[in-house]
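Q: Structure for this?
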Amino acid sequence: MKRTFALLALAALVCLAQPSAMSPDQKLTHALNRLTFGARPGDVERVRAMGLTQWLDEQLHPQSITENTELEKRLAPLDTLHMSTSEMLRHYPSRQVVKAISEGRAELPTDPFTRAVFEVAAKRVKKAQANNPQGDEKPLPALPADMPTRPRERVAYLEALPAEKLVAALEAIPQGQRRRLADLAGPELRRKIEVLSAPMQVIPTDLVSGKILRATWSNKQLEEVLVDFWYNHFNVFLEKGADRELVTAYERDAIRPHVLGKFKDMLLATAQSPAMLFYLDNWQSSGAQAPARGAKQTRGLNENYGRELLELHTLGVDGGYSQQDVTEVARCFTGWTLRRPGQGRDFFFNPRMHDRGEKHVLGKTLEPRGIAEGLQVLDILAHHPSTAHFIATKLATRFVADDPPPSLVSKMEKTFLASDGDLREVMKTMLAAPEFWEPARFNGKLKSPLEFLVSALRASGDEVKTPPSLNTLMTKMGQPLYRKAEPTGYSNRGADWMNSSSLLARMNFATSLKHAEYGAPDFQRK
Amino acid sequence: MRPMHRRIFLRDSALAIAGVGSLPLWLQRTALGAESQGRKKTLVAIFQRGAADGLNIVVPHGEPDYYKLRPTIALPKESLLDLDGFFGLNPALAPLKPLWDAKNLAIIHAAGSPDPTRSHFDAQDYMESGTPGRKSTADGWLNRALLPADHPSSVRAVSLGAALPRTIRGRNAAVAVESIASFHVKDAAASQQFETLYGSDSILGGTARTTFDAVKLLRSLGENTATGYPRGKFGESLKQIAHIIKANAGLEVAFADLGGWDHHVNEVGQNPTEGQLAQRLTEFGTALAAFHADLGARMEDVVVVTMSEFGRTARENGNRGTDHGHANAMLVMGAGVKGGKVYGKWPGLQPEQLYQNRDLAVTTDFRDVLGEAVHHHLGNQKLEGVFPGYSASPARFPGIMSA
């Protein structure tokens, strides 16, 4: 309880009067607060020893940083994070594939364990469809006669079983006991237990766990913060149909490689990503003259992506475009669609769906040139002064202040325009600006729920035992990960997150950390 | 846990909770007066986020252009619940039909914001601040609608959900309640200490004080055992609002929202009672009807008004959906509502009648509808303070309520 009390007492410190400049130690703390998900024990000392300039430079070049082996160890079992979408769908059941199997349109996998996982998923779906979630509960099959009863012995027994027998043995163990065994098991068996327990959840759960683990453990902290920022900028809602399986590759391949690269590359990668094409419906948008594929299908323009591209991804709502521009941009992107919708859903340009007329975008006339029109639109947008202003403002809002100083935004936007939208250069400009280091910035911004939660975990040094359960807490605080339905993404303004509900949720999380509800086994109450 | 870890944990968590060095506006509120409970008039604002398709919710079946503009997603006349021979209710709103028949429910069609934006974000912001076209407004119309009070209840302004939406933010203390059941600090001893420290803390004084007062008040409520609410967040929100009203806890303004109305694709299913829009409407209508039934006679103190940031294109798009449009339909039910009538001037759907040749035109400013509810129900007659820069006055009210 002392811990809580002291924790609260420190709240009073934050209203002390501000001196005219940050002290060197404040600078270290400030940099860690803003550019990472919070300081871990020893971080301040480490940065001090290395020198702040050197540390900043390192964070701006994450490829030079050796990754934390602890993180790699924890990420290793989450194999979906490294799979292509089609590979993922071969190994883990999705709603569509399970449905296809049950309708005889697809076959069960041959690998015995994967096959069992798909069968469990199919059974669950059938049960849910029968709209009888409680009833018809069959008694569990009998436990194998030779299975030991002591947990540790039982784990050793299970670990030695071949796949076919393992599935049967696991299904005979009640869910609660299984979970306890998972805690004792090695990574491979633990993974199998988890996969069998909730086969349809593996893909989204890996995604959420991966994010929390990286935020908590990665040495490339700025990169993680930026991946969070840019995913949110190009937000996709995980729960929109196929996006459940598409978001993993989207964040990994379209966002992550570009967060310190060129904005135009990230813009193009998102424009051609299956996740975005599906989320904002562009894959279905076509010229009015395009032939319909069947009696049920109608053909024509869909403005959804065109509008959000201008409003949310590039120019900003006050960036100087009209409804006419929205429609014309949407026409340019007709035919940017998906191949093999049921499987990997790769991007492809379908000339038959493309509107072949002339277009007028932001005062420019675009001759009919197929896919090149969309590419030209992206090029115009990526180099537009409104985009530079919009991106600079948003970055400064996230990293500096809810209402960032216009002088800072102006410097960042100049760099954006002068460097062909080089996001590393824009970050450097921000970090070189005195506005970033003004004393008023020190502890001057409220944390978002994610920043709050991860910074507390990092500060405590606790093991994150069950990352997915932390997402329930994120939901309570209003920021369920990957689940912002609207394309706007979450607010970068700290003040938007403060209210009684979130205050209570934060207090509850602080006390639950104290009780080690999320902590490491050695920190558990016995 | 090692001592060094603990120390850092303490500092950072403290900063993480309080986390401020400068003083945001919401923290500068003056300390609240003593708790005053009591039976109050309550105005409940409901926001349908994502731009609901008013033309397929309150359907102008008497308008031939409606069927021309929507060859695959228009609702056939025979599927509708006819209202007045010209408009019909989407069949998924069947739970609301008895309220219409009993004249408890009024509809205002072709209502909306005069601002031309088709951005969800901006349009929601304008509607929530009550100042279309003005981004600098810091607070929301529902907060400004509150009359000055000497001893306001800590739950006079409540929003259901994890966030505190713009509509209800402002200088009057407002609380966000994710759920009444979890609205407290689980560890009682820690709660006491949080309260001792934050309650007297100059920075967190406002929000923390209100929060702890509200916690005590809501903890004493027990459970709302009413039935009939649909599963899901929205039904749960309305159920909890009804609960606070019935408890006479001093609730004056409440807010709840329901997302998922942005139907660019496959808006209507094979059958008018199926598909994405019908699904949303079923939840929406069932919840409102359950709320009405739950409050029973107590509805004499309550007015509910619904809104959405804008409507959708009069023409269907290429994917059996609709894109962002302009005017929409608003619903009003409760005390003093002269229901059973569709209010507002119908602008028509012929090409030259459409706004920018694509959308239903706005003929009633949404502020006139909200203004009437604020004026007649909450008794706040200073509408220039509620809708600054707009001359809301009884002369412009659509006349949905008895004065």
